[in-house]
Amino acid sequence: MNNNNLKNMDLPGELGSLSVYQCEQLCREIRKNIIDTVLKNGGHLASNLGTVELTVAIHRVFHSPADKIVWDVGHQTYTHKLLTGRYESFSTLRKEDGLSGFCRPEESEHDAFISGHSSTAISAAFGYAEAMRLNGDNHHAVAVIGDGAFTGGLAYEGLNNAGKSKDNIIVILNHNDMSISKNVGAFARYLTSIRGNSAYLDTKKKVEKILNDTPVVGEPIKRFIVSAKSALKSVLYHSTMFEDMGFVYLGPIDGHNIAEIEETLRAAKKLRCPVFVHVNTVKGKGFRPAEINPGAFHSIPASGYNKRNPDNRVTDSFSETFGKKLCALADDDKRICAITASMKYATGLEHFAVSHPERFFDVGIAEQHAVTFAAGLSKGGKLPVFAVYSSFLQRSYDQLIHDASTDNEHIVLGIDHSGFVGGDGETHQGLFDVPMLMTIPNTTIYSPSTYAELELCLESALYSTEGIAAVRYPKGTESDTIGIDDTDSYLLTRNGSRCLAISYGRIVHNLYSAAGTDIDVLKLVKIFPVDEAVTELCMDYSEIYFFEESSRTGGIGEHLMSRLYENGYKGSFVITGVKGHVKQASVQRCMEKYFLDEESMKYILQSGSEIIAT
Amino acid sequence: MNNNNLKNMDLPGELGSLSVYQCEQLCREIRKNIIDTVLKNGGHLASNLGTVELTVAIHRVFHSPADKIVWDVGHQTYTHKLLTGRYESFSTLRKEDGLSGFCRPEESEHDAFISGHSSTAISAAFGYAEAMRLNGDNHHAVAVIGDGAFTGGLAYEGLNNAGKSKDNIIVILNHNDMSISKNVGAFARYLTSIRGNSAYLDTKKKVEKILNDTPVVGEPIKRFIVSAKSALKSVLYHSTMFEDMGFVYLGPIDGHNIAEIEETLRAAKKLRCPVFVHVNTVKGKGFRPAEINPGAFHSIPASGYNKRNPDNRVTDSFSETFGKKLCALADDDKRICAITASMKYATGLEHFAVSHPERFFDVGIAEQHAVTFAAGLSKGGKLPVFAVYSSFLQRSYDQLIHDASTDNEHIVLGIDHSGFVGGDGETHQGLFDVPMLMTIPNTTIYSPSTYAELELCLESALYSTEGIAAVRYPKGTESDTIGIDDTDSYLLTRNGSRCLAISYGRIVHNLYSAAGTDIDVLKLVKIFPVDEAVTELCMDYSEIYFFEESSRTGGIGEHLMSRLYENGYKGSFVITGVKGHVKQASVQRCMEKYFLDEESMKYILQSGSEIIAT
Asked: Using CA atoms, how far apart are residues B551 and B528, in angstroms rounded to an integer?
């Protein structure tokens, strides 16, 4: 055993031959690798440092890929990747054509299920477990899920279904008392109550033993003991919520003690029924700055850890602009409420949380609830604003239609990370919010391209729009912009051309550069519903080029195009949009790949036709 | 007090002045009204008969609309409607321009929140409760929710958030041990375990009393008592899952004993904190056939109760065709698994459940889990088929994108009730599945128009399609059809015209009649992705008319149109589709209102332009 175990060992197979001491050595090597790589490539740090020992223990007890290990969210699987044949490629983490920062089955047979969104693991693992049962396969399905993910209803749906089975399914709770922000809700409080009580199981056993051993003397005492015994029985049966849900509960155990984890997992494996293993871990374990401030090290940018700003906070971004503006508006308007699904920092709402704590709601990773709750607040006379990443808003589709739109409730959505997101890859791309929202009656969508426009749009969404008012904006910072006026509606730049180029969102900056002074440019900011004035002005052109950093199918381009031709438009109309799932790469590279960068736009405008990807 | 209380009393205000005996009389009158109306108009019977006493008690204890009563699903609110000024209009239930079969705020100030989908009430009521807190309003928010709805993750998300508050929120569990089909899952088993134990609270109190009263004699006994006492304390604190979630738990109580319900609700009201009230009710109470077979009386058609078929079963429908075909295919293919979200009968899966119980999964009202679980089954080598109503599939949007599409998992969706649904109205219309699915990469959509086509499409979805394969079909029976060939692709009927009319789904029958032999007709069955051959053949025409019984915005029409014009099509293209939310009316009337009936189609084809609704 030397210092290059990750490189030289045959993993995960050889893991089983190591002593506990050697495992601990290996864990140190893993931690070093993770810290070095994440500080260079960006990625999730605190969560990965918390699951090193747990992952080693899991791969010693279970035999992937025959046993199916399903990681919830999947951003804590760097150790898993290092142990399953991806040591050499680990330096490509989150880079174009490199390793995904999440689980991706096409990357390795050890990645049992795609993951990037929260709370899916129990349902997916239970699917595996039932398939195994039907196939007569005695292996195990193992879901590893954080306490934060347990605030999502899907986790509960999975538990409710798996718990009634007799399958070999093991749910491992990685309990670090945090989701992305500090965990919230009654369930978190409950978990903490049993987490704190490490003597929980011991006490049960002790009491049982005492009851069996105590000699029964005298009638009143006997009566008492019989009463207590029967009451205790019901306790022992219904001792945790997980036992109520049909699982054998084991824990809580120390998630950084490999021997203890292994012993418990081996016990769980023998039981051959649904087992819930409660593991306490420390986020950021082994890297002091991340242990002290795990929120700041949840996800760090590719530029790496900023030593001069130990808070690791971004101060200039669309998210920050949104958060600060909302906070300022709320100073003057007591009706404004802010809602986040466990992403207070990432969506810029921490200012609001500090200034208006009584009107700030972190609902957990519960996007469904967030929307229905917002509709309830609106009914009660409030102005609710739900700030959420585009790809996570997908969870609210039915609530938007049923709970908000049907009764034309006024709620505002602040949709962050719309468009390409870079290193997070396909599960996090914000490419569906536009077609998703367009189909929902009583919905207005704004897509600002600068900070100033974002502020304008937020005000319009709050005060000049009925029903669902969505303001969508990209990840990151605004571009160095050409001096174009800000608006919450649309802006036509006339260059005297018969050719019109249209776009919305941040790529309008590429378009202005590409169009130069040869072609007229229409910037859409209120993108849906399409204004009559917009369709009318389009009728004057003989060539129209539409660019969208969003799904092409079912998008604004197709919709506007159909409106124009129905009005008798006779010219050409060429749409450039995004097709299919978009893999990780820098935002600029994604733009190039989907022909939304300045150069591609120039080519399209000059050649007069769409570029068909080869 | 006479026999016309509903007509003559000033309700709900005067309810408070009645004696319990008079209330019981009133309940009899209410039951009679409900039975008479539902047997005539169709609607939900069993659930409404189960909540008569509960509703009367709620309106005696709480003061709507100042107190906000939020009904989950809302199909059990007929008593509520009769008590809140809608006695006179009750005969219009579920008819065009009549009373909604669900809660609809625009209908009455007493309908606090829209409802038609399950598991939303706690989140909505909590929104009200927080708004009340911020407004300094001391009234109560009350959510009334069935045990079936508790299988949906949204209910848990709501509980998790409400339970940590200090608000005046009361959750009333209407526990009838049934959702639409027999309730399933670990949580249901848990509820039943506490339902059966009516002495639950008594025992707690008794044990507590004994502990306090027992004299402590001798050291060993003392040690024992101290141990037991501390263990019991934790029991008393964590005695039900609801207490774990931060609620005071009261119950279970008899849901047909007005005095007992009232007493408990008054106690709950005084507590001024989150309270969970567990009420046992009997579905179908007071109507023998419905008590014996509540599943058959969950929802009955407008044709009324069929005395000759006490099962009240439909034997000829798209649902039945789907269910029987799937069952037959599963006889030969052991990989096929069937999944329902608590709608075994309504989706025709009861045949499968009987023939292949080990491969049949009723997951509860958990559409999110259904899709993620299906993706897991697929990973495990199975062929999962999820049968679901169109409007309920909206809950699975993110799971379809993230858990199925991203990794190109092969799962089949049987989408029932696509298109207009008649009396159930706006919350149940199947108008969004097409634009929703079109935006999801790796998705194929079939929209058969006859039983034979449904069978063909199901086979194609299972065996000739990759990724997500959706087969969508309408509520009810197939039309008396003109003799047109069945296909799983498309069918062009040439009449030598330069004008082409295109449609899909059941309305193609209207189109064939409307077009006669003057116009060419293209029936699409595989509607997405659009075949190259389809776009090519369209290029030959100078006028195209597209009809869809689905959302016009973001739909197939707009998509096909954009494909054609990009290919250089020079003719006209007129789309007729559905805009906005569609209110209850017969399916035929809905077709007329949205210009999709034969007469409107004729007019459009002859006049050459879309009809703009006035």
From this structure: 15
